[in-house]
Amino acid sequence: MRSLVGRGPSARLLCRSCLQQQRQFASSVAPPKPPSSGLAALPSRQLLSVSGPEATKFLQGITTANITNEEGLPRTDAFYSGFLNATGRVVHDLFIYPFHQSKQGLADKEDGYLIEADASEMARFAKLIKRYKLRAKVTVRNVAQDEAAVWQAWDDASQLDITPDQSRLVLKDPRAPGLGYRIIQLNQKSPEVDLDTSTQDAYTIRRYLQGVPEGQDEILREQALPLESNMEMMNGIDFHKGCYVGQELTIRTKHRGVVRKRILPCMIYSNDKAAPQSLMYDPECTSPESLTADMIPAETSIGRFGKKGRSAGKWLKGVGNIGLGLCRLEIMTDVVLPGEQAAATYKPGNEFVLEWGEEDNKNDVKVKAFVPEWLREGLGTPS
Question: Locate the CAF17 C-terminal domain: which residues (predicted)?
Answer without folding.
Answer: 260-376
